[in-house]
Amino acid sequence: MVYIRAKKVKSDQYLYLVKSVWDSKKSTSKQEILKYLGKASEVVKDDIPEDYRDDPRILSILASYNPKDIKKREDATKKSKQQLYKRLTEGNIEETVKIYDEYTKLFSPSDFFDRILKPVMYKVGEDWASKKISIATEHVASNMAQTLVKIIMDQVTSKNTKKKVLICVPLGEEHHLGCDVLETYLSIKGCKVFNIGTSIPSESILSFIEYKKPDVILISITLEDNIGAGQRLVKKIKEQFNIPILVGGYVFHGEVTPKFDVKIVPDSGLEEIYKIIRKT
């Protein structure tokens, strides 16, 4: 059985999607966390994994937490996603930035990245794969999204560096939008971020680690073809350094999770990733 569990921290409630699992050794059931959902007053239907999104019990619990705020967020999110998709595929960067500015007047930058930009870029990829849009339009949208992230990054002026974080990809991985989004958000949070989200030899990454000595390493993998390269990169890093490694990316959204001998963050929001980094 899947349900929502609330945890109170100070004056705020935080929600988790949990599953009841039977422990045959102890002859009792235990709770297994499927996903951290976030602050109760900010969680919306889209935050629930698709398999459980229409469960009446879960929807009723969501509705019990500030339903007016939730309705307001859902309406704003739906409208912003539609607008962003249109502006990105048109190549209109000025209007794209306006969408970000307007949305973040009401909600946080992490909400924009998690609830707007990420699902919109997934839709762009899906529409290209199903031939609803051309490859040229997909390239325009991707370039606009990367430009948007860089513009947001230029607005970051935080001087409070809490941790040094290295973001990288395995050899052969050419998708780096996720790395750019992470760089922007973690910089907003005050981290010192080294983003080498372009495909370079593992030896170059190892040399960079030796030189910069990051506190945490994030490896992003988008395509299944790059899982093997990612596993080899993790192995080489672990052989030479005692540094926490997190692995995530679109490749971990499938039904089968690739095996890595490090912590995997398959479907975590930006705020949750930051919390993991902070505790590491």
Number of strands: 8
Q: What is the typical, i.e. mean, pLDDT? A: 85
Poorly predicted residue ranges: none
CATH class of the largest domain: Alpha Beta
Structural class: alpha/beta
Topology pattern, helix = H, strand = E: EEEHHHHHEHEHEHEEH
Q: What is the name of the CATH superfamily of the largest domain?
A: Cobalamin-binding domain
The number of domains is 3
Physical arrangement of strands within the biggest beta sheet: 5-4-6-7-8
Q: What value does the Rg take, in angstroms?
A: 20 Å
Helix content: 40-55%
Global geometry:
globular
Largest sheet: 5 strands, parallel
Distance from N terminus to C terminus (CA atoms, Å) equals 31 Å
Describe, in short, the structure shown.
The chain is an alpha/beta fold and 280 residues long. The protein has nine helices and eight strands.
Q: Can you lay out the helices and strands and say which pair or pack?
A:
Layout: E1 2-9, E2 12-23, E3 28-39, H1 56-63, H2 67-90, H3 93-106, H4 109-129, H5 135-154, E4 164-168, H6 177-188, E5 192-196, H7 202-212, E6 216-220, H8 227-240, E7 245-248, E8 263-265, H9 270-279
Parallel strand pairs: 4-5, 4-6, 6-7, 7-8
Antiparallel strand pairs: 1-2, 2-3
